[in-house]
What does this fold into?
Amino acid sequence: MIINHNVPALNTHRQLSINTANTSKNIEKLSSGLRINRAGDDAAGLAISEKMRGQIRGLDQASRNAQDGISLIQTAEGALNETHSILQRMRELSVQSSTATNTADDRASLDKEFQQLKSEVTRIADQTEFNTQTLLKGGLGATATAGADIVAGKGVTNFNAGGSGVGDIVLKSAAGTAAGTVKITASFTDAAGNSVTQELDDVAIPTGANSSTINFDKLGFSFTANSSLAAGSFGGNPASTVSVAASATKFQIGANANQTIEVSIGNMDATALGVAGNDILTADKAQTSITSLDNAIKSVSEARANLGSVQNRLEHTINNLGTSSENLTAAESRVRDVDMAKEMMEQTKNNILAQAAQAMLAQANQQPQGVLQLLR
It folds into this structure.
């Protein structure tokens, strides 16, 4: 018999410490509902689950972004619905003014309403906003002098070229390689103070080419384009260049970078729709107005159809994001959440072992006292 080292007591104490620690971990997991509470519980599982958590939160936010996008589209489409109604009424007035039964005074009365409606079209375009962002003006315009870099809005961008001679704009398709067409409208004021407008419809960008050049013979003009623009030179002066980058409304609809949907809403004021200069004071002008209003109605219809298609896409996107978030949450749960029944079983086992070890430690501590019997 030895008394300096009570090996059974040491062994029992070690087992008691292990069982007590395991019981504490069991209680922590049961109280939190998580299998992984710290990196030491499962280092690899923690890393995997944290990535999943980031994706889940990103998917949930992307869903909210898509819902905001739908709200923006509904705001724009609602305004365009009213623009449609106004254009239809303007066309009705034009048809009414076209008939020979009207006198000049009759047409003047009709034109008063016509002009008010035309102003309302522009007002709707100017004042339709979502979160302080104007929706129906083609985006925020940018202004710069020659030699400066600017960012083009989705609609009108103003330039002041400082050279002399011919100016050019280099047009690029969105991908730099695909074919496409754009519409360019350039307006300027000549030396006599007269306003002059030039329009180029369906300017083609050939397949396989990454740029085309449009030349204007005046300086200080504004343009509207539905395409991206590369650097161009103005006035024949190499230093007079302007760099333009296209912009569009982008909705972040994914958990990762570059998972976006773009939607373009063109300028929908009376000028952009081609009806700003219309009146119905004569039968001939009324006939011309009917044609331009048909084109304007077509443009608004196309814009609304585009918005509707994007809205439908976003609705499906929201459904898909919800499904993805649900499935990823289930995967994260399998990695991180604790099986309560199994953990309760482990806690019961470790608790019993801890109590047994405590009782055995008391017994082991009694063994050295047997030496006293030898001393009697």
About this structure: The radius of gyration is 38 Å. The mean pLDDT is 78.
